[in-house]
Amino acid sequence: MFTLRVAVMWTVNDFPAYAMVSGWSTKGYMACPVCKEDVTSGWHAGKVCYLGHRRWLPWDHEWREKDKEFDGNTERRLRPREWSSDEIVEQLNRLDFAPFRKTVNRTRPSTHMNWTHKPMFFELPYWSKLKLRHNLDVMHVEKNVFDTLVGTILDIEGKTKDTIKARLDLERMGIRRGLWMNRDSDKFPDGYASNIARCVNVDGGKFTGLKSHDCHVFMQRLLPVGIRHLLPEDVVKPIMLLSRFFSQLTAKTLRKTDILQLRHDIVQVLCKFEMIFPPAFFTSMMHVMVHLPEEELLAGPVNYSWMYPIERLLGELKKSVRNRAKPEGSIIEAWVQYESLTFCGINHATVSFFPSFQKFPQPSSLSPPPPLPPIPVDLDRARDVGGTPELPRPHLRASRHHIAVLHRIGSAVRLLPSATNSDG
Ligand SMILES: [Zn+2]
Prior knowledge:
This protein is mostly helical. Helices cover 42% and strands 3% of the residues.
C-alpha cells in the first residue's frame, strides 16, 4: 500500500469553459483572461472586437506612428501588464461574490471587472503561485481563426466579417476610404473577399461543417498553397506567416529561440491583419493568438495542453453508448470491458479466447509467465451486451467473449500468481 499524491498542473479546456474554471468571464469588453482589464477592445459592427496589437511592437516601431492604416490613432501604450499571483489572490479575496447558483439575475458590479466567482482551485496551497493555471486551447483557437479567415476571404454568408455593418464602421472611424459603402448604388467595392469563391463549390458544402482536424490540415498545409496566386501579395504574406506560425507552434519539438521568433511573428501578422481586415474581423479568438507563444514557453510543446487527445477519448466513449436513455451506464460498461480485456491481454499472453490481444507488448521487467491451460469459455452462459440483437455475426461472437471475460475475471486473476505477486 502507498499514498497516492496528485497535483493539478493546469487545466485544458475550450474558451467558454475557461471562464468557468478560471472565474474570469471570457465575454464582453475584458474578454481576454491574460490581458484582463487592460485589453484594447471596442464596439464595431454590432459586437465587441479586440484590436490594438501594435502595443506588442517595439517602442520605436514605425507602425506605432501610422494612424490611417490602423484604427485612426497612433499607438503610445505598452503591452498589457501581467498580474502577479498575489494581486489576483488579494483581489479575489476582496470581492464579494454572490452565493453559488444565485448569480443568474444579478448584475455584476463594475469593481468586479470580469471576475464572476473565486474558483475552488485557489484552495490548493500552490495554485496561486503557478505561472500558468489554464491553457488557451490551441485546437479551438486554430479552428475559430481558420473559420473567420476563410469565411472572410471566401465571402461565405454568415461567416464573413466583411459585412455592410463593417463597411459603415470603417466610414464612422474615418479609415480606408476606398472601402466605404457606395451610397448611390447600395453596393460596396471589392475588398477582402477574393475570387477564390469562384474556385470552390460552396453550395456543395465543401467549406461547411469542417471538423477541427480538417481546419488544422487546411490551415497548415493547403491554405498557403491555395491562396498563393489568387489574392494580392500583401494579403497572402501575412496569411502564409500565420500558417507557418501554427505549423511551428504545434510541432512536437521546439527550441526556445523558435518560440521567441513565433512571438515576434504573430504580432507582425496581427498588425498586418489590422491594416487589411475590418475591425469586426478581430474576435477574441483572433486576439488570444498573441498569447499562445508565451504559454508554450511555460507549458512546453502544445501536444500536452490541447484538446485533441481529450476530444478523441470523449468520441470513443460516445461511440459505446447503446442505450441513449442512460449513456453513463453504457460508457461505464464499455470501459470495464476495455480495462479487463487490456488487463488480460497484457498479463496473460496465453489466453486463447481472444488471440488478437496477444499483440500487447509484454513488460520487459517481468519474466515470461509459465504456460497455463486456456481458460474455458462457457458461451451458453454468456449473453449479448446492450439492446442491439441485429448485430452482425462476428460482432455478436465478440460480445459474448467480452461478457465471458467479465464472468471469468476472478478466475483470471487467481490464475495469475506471478502478476499479482509482483504488483503487491
Ligand atoms: Zn490578451
